[in-house]
Amino acid sequence: MLQLFLAATAQVLVVSIIVGAGLPGVFALGVRWMAAGAGGDAETSHAAARPACTALAVLCFALVLAVIAAGLAILISSGLGYTVSFDHVLPTFMKKG
Amino acid sequence: MNLELAILVLVVVTAIGFDFTNGFHDTGNAMATSIATGALQPRTAVLLSAVLNLVGAFLSVQVALTVTNAVVKIQDKSGMPKAQFLADNGHLLLLIVFCGLIGGIFWNLLTWLLGLPSSSSHALFGGLVGSTIAALGFGGVNWAGDGTKLDGILGKVVLPALASPVVAAIVSMIGTWIVYRVTEGVADRYRETGFRWGQIGTASLVSLAHGTNDAQKTMGVITLALIGYGSWHHTTSIPLWVKVVCAGAIALGTYTGGWRIIRTLGKGLVEIDSPQGMAAEASSAAVILASSHLGFALSTTHVATGSILGTGLGRRGAEVRWGVALRMVVAWLVTLPAAALVGAAMYGIANGLSGVAGGWLGPFVVFAMLLAMAGYLVARSRRTPIGAHNVNDDWDTGLGPTPAPSTSA
């Protein structure tokens, strides 16, 4: 039992750190670059705007949205009796059982 | 009307009541951080959370009929009540479930009065364990399963409760640290506004997950009672009205907003800013989804609390009120035994009166006790009302649910 428990906990911890700490990290990068893109008062340095950074920021936010969409997919599919597999990187839906 | 039908009606009403307390007890898990940072107005936050809980409850087509199997032995693997409970229109089963639900409601209301987030599932499990012990003895309890998988009180309640706050705290601590590190050089106001959006998005995910997980439990309990009585025969589907009523009850409960608990989580534990709020909710969402995906379901409440604590640890200079955290941990430890005591006492009373008035008196006396107790606790809460208007007031003003910790035991 203890072994099962530790294994399950470790698994949850690893996945959660990657997603749960990584996601705010990517979002933070988005905010950082968005601020760089806006320049001026958005940054403590009051540097000039760098529009290219805005594009990078948009990319970050898109990634965050994609991960949230994956979360939604897991939720909805498990409610419908399906499970989502990430074995092939891209999410695939499989009937539970 | 026969006696069992009357008890069935009481069970259904009580289960809906439990579902309602489940909703308002857990509003804070998703929304406390958004309310505390001002990302959402309090009323907007509870409305959003209620709608997402409603949607979540309807999304769960799967039947959580075997919910009691985690802790007690009154059903078989398919969800059918064991044969010995089907006698007398399921009289014994109905009584056990009824008294268990009362134990759960009692603990949910008491902890709400004290402003303590505690797991509604643990309260329900505790109540069921208590009434089962009173009815069947200690052999009726599933203590640790058969050892081949995480099961029983040990594997499904105790161990997850130990793991969840720690895992969530580690994740959100790392997330918080990363977020502040990455956004160095961004002006405070710009950062605050940006993260509000992230906060709302992640909090919504937590609300939705709550709806899909928790509403199912009450649906399962009501359906179990219906099967016990003999008015429902399927183990692979539940009556539509049960689904509608449970979804409605949990959403309405969420909308009512357990403001006392929201206040403790949002203001009491740690003073948080938007970036911390997002890190906390992202951690909660990730841990809840990952754990249920891996078949190791963790309590939303324990995860959310751990996440909020973690944001305090991950940001330099942030203050964590360890006294508040300690009270919560004590409440968590006491949840199962306390709800069990009430569940057992209720069963003892109902069963003790079984010779009176053909058995009619017992269930109604117990139900009257539930109403009286709920009325008393709600009346007590009116002395120090907490609502949308003062939920965000300074913690140190001493407002609200801070009676002596000893009363929480």
Q: Could you characterize what this model shows?
A:
Chain A has 97 residues and is mainly alpha-helical. Chain A has one domain (1-95). Chain A contains 2 helices and 2 strands, in the order H-H-E-E. In chain A, strands 1-2 form a two-stranded antiparallel sheet. The model of chain A has no long low-confidence stretch (mean pLDDT 86). Chain B is mainly alpha-helical. The radius of gyration of chain B is 21 Å and the shape is elongated. Chain B has one domain (3-404).
Descriptive terms for the model:
heterodimer; A: 97 residues; mainly alpha; two-stranded antiparallel sheet; 2 helices; elongated; B: 409 residues; 12 helices; 0% strand; disordered C terminus; membrane (chain A)
Write the layout of secondary structure elements.
The complex is a heterodimer of chains A (97) and B (409).
Chain A (H helix, E strand, L loop, with lengths): L1 H37 L12 H29 L2 E4 L6 E4 L2
Antiparallel strand pairs in A: 1-2
Helix pairs in contact in A: 1-2
Chain B lengths: L2 H35 L4 H18 L31 H23 L6 H17 L15 H31 L5 H42 L10 H17 L2 H10 L5 H20 L6 H15 L7 H31 L8 H23 L26
**C-alpha-based Rg of chain A, rounded:** 19 Å
**Strand runs of chain A, count:** 2
Averaged pLDDT of chain B? 89
* CA distance, first residue to last residue of chain A: 23 Å
Instruction: Considering residues with a beta carbon less than 8 A from a beta carbon on another chain, report the largest interface and each chain's count.
Output: A-B, 44 and 58 residues
Share in helix of chain A: 55-70%
Percentage of residues in strands of chain B = under 5%
Kindly estimate the percentage of residues of chain A that lie in beta strands according to DSSP. 5-15%
The number of distinct helices of chain A, counting runs of at least 4 residues, comes to 2
With strands numbered from the N-terminus, the spatial order across the biggest sheet of chain A is 1-2
**Tell me about the biggest sheet of chain B?**
none
CA-based gyration radius of chain B = 21 Å
Quaternary structure of the protein: heterodimer
**Pairing-aware structural class of the strands and helices of chain A?**
mainly alpha
Transmembrane segments (chain A): 12-35, 55-76
Keywords (chain A): Membrane, Transmembrane, Transmembrane helix
